[in-house]
Write a structure and sequence with these properties.
about 290 residues; alpha/beta; 2 domains; 4-stranded antiparallel beta sheet; binds adenosine-5'-triphosphate; nucleotide-binding
């Protein structure tokens, strides 16, 4: 379990983080979302020891995180850090060696990752000759090469085409399935919804909402959507606040069983369920609250 506890950070007069806490358990994929400048990169940099907090703690498996343990983490920084004039496979293996692998281990791991990320045919190319999306795949390979215990990734999906998104998403889920806590930031909320177990929403350096995807959705559920096969207009007959959305009835503040009884008496009920908001809607609601 990786725990980020009560981080505070100022840059001059700017309060970047004002008591940020979040955690990722073994095998959990946590999506970290927030508007531009909300504090995601600063939080991740502090978690990885690249930046010092003014106060707060990073705790790993119950104890303060040390330098040696951090070497076993995989990190994709926002400022991507590849050597453009190095060949792809050599580069990935080089980072493996920096993390303490033998040359043979690092090369074998690099080759396996290139295969997994559909980049085997570019193994001998210079990084600078790859497209930006492929450079990003290499960047992911660099963060995975040493089989990290934890993954902290700053916008790993930005600039990727849909195929690359799937490849990257599978790689992250595989890592989590192997027991690693995974935290990544993204502005692509559909991806967050698809890939994450939990979501943490940050706004102006504070956590404004967090929980599992199901919890967040359940908290925001408000309206019942009902479709009935009938020519009759049930607006005035259903209890609660009733509005129409096309042929559907949207009902709030109601007794759902009573709604069902009336609807079923009027005709065949073809849909009867509470609308669940998307993570994008929950995000918009949270940041404008
Ligand atoms: N090195 C720095 N010097 C001064 N201010 C900084 C520095 N790094 C970050 N900030 C400020 O701290 C705040 C948080 O920035 P941060 O980069 O963490 O946001 P973010 O959520 O990652 O944003 P984005 O989605 O745009 O990447 C912003 O107001 C930013 O301008």
């Amino acid at each position: 379990m990786l725990e980020i506890k009560d981080l505070h950070k100022r840059f001059g007069d700017t309060v970047a983080l004002d008591g940020v806490s979040l955690a990722a358990a073994a095998g959990e994929v946590v999506g970290f979302v927030g508007a531009n400048g909300a504090g995601k990169t600063t939080t991740m940099r502090i978690a990885m020891g690249v930046l010092a907090a003014d106060s707060g703690q990073i705790v790993y498996n119950g104890a303060p995180l040390g330098v040696e343990q951090r070497r076993r983490f995989g990190y994709m920084p926002s400022e991507r850090g590849l050597y453009p004039k190095m060949k792809t496979a050599e580069q990935i293996a080089y980072f493996g060696e920096l993390h303490g692998m033998t040359r043979a281990q690092a090369r074998a791991s690099a080759a396996a990752l290139l295969e997994q990320l559909n980049l085997s045919d570019r193994a001998g190319d210079f990084v600078q000759d790859l497209s930006l999306g492929n450079q990003q795949r290499v960047q992911l390979a660099v963060s995975l090469v040493h089989d990290p215990e934890v993954l902290v990734l700053d916008e790993p999906f930005s600039g990727l085409d849909p195929i690359a998104v799937d490849v990257m998403g599978t790689a992250l889920r595989d890592r989590a399935a192997a027991g690693a806590p995974v935290i990544f930031s993204s502005h692509q909320l559909d991806l967050i919804e698809r890939l994450c177990d939990s979501v943490v929403i940050i706004g102006n350096g504070r956590i404004i909402a967090s929980g599992t995807v199901e919890e967040l959705k359940a908290k925001e559920v408000k309206q019942l959507r009902v479709s009935v096969d009938t020519d009759e207009d049930l607006t005035g007959r259903l209890p609660g606040t009733v509005t129409r959305d096309g042929d559907d009835y949207l009902v709030e503040d109601t007794d759902d069983q009573e709604v069902l009884r009336i609807a079923a008496a009027a005709g065949r009920v073809t849909h009867f369920a509470y609308d669940q908001p998307t993570i994008a809607e929950i995000f918009r609601e949270a940041v404008t609250r």
